[in-house]
Amino acid sequence: MADRIRLGHVQLRVRDLACSRAFYERLLGWSLREAGRGVAFLGPGSEHHQLALLEVGEDAPFVPFGVGLSHVAFEIDGPKAFVDLYRRLAQGGTTVSGVDLGVSWSLFLKDPDGNEVEIFCDTRNVKGGRRRWEGRGAALGLAEALARVTDESAVGA
Predict the structure, then answer these.
(1) Residue stretches of the chain with pLDDT short of 70
(2) What pTM value is reported for the model?
(3) Deepest in the core among 15, 23, 64, 97, taking most CB within 10 A?
(4) Which domains does the chain have, with CATH numbers?
């Protein structure tokens, strides 16, 4: 039965729906699929939605490090797409933190409400990539990621 179950969507509670919607549309390139009073559904391609935004109002408290969702992660298709997004975000003034986790390269950033967002690509087949996560990571700058992608011997087939 487990192979018949997949993640349908993630819902985030946000203070300002219009602001959050614009942020995620720019970040992910996803389209608005449906909207209602205080809610917006965003998705890629033919998907109805993978992200639901629910407006809870400007006065809603933010409780970092409490029990609940740690972060939302979105997978991007490979190191080249990762570097392209990294460059676009950096040039656009978005504060991001790049991390090489061995099994993946990740960008961490905050959405308008302070929720942590991760954009990652699998690097298990990239030179220097590991098969298993070893519980550690190292800083990954844009220049280093770009150098590893442009070095044709670094990217696996």
Answers:
(1) 1, 151-157
(2) 0.85
(3) 23
(4) 1-57 (3.10.180.10), 70-157 (3.10.180)
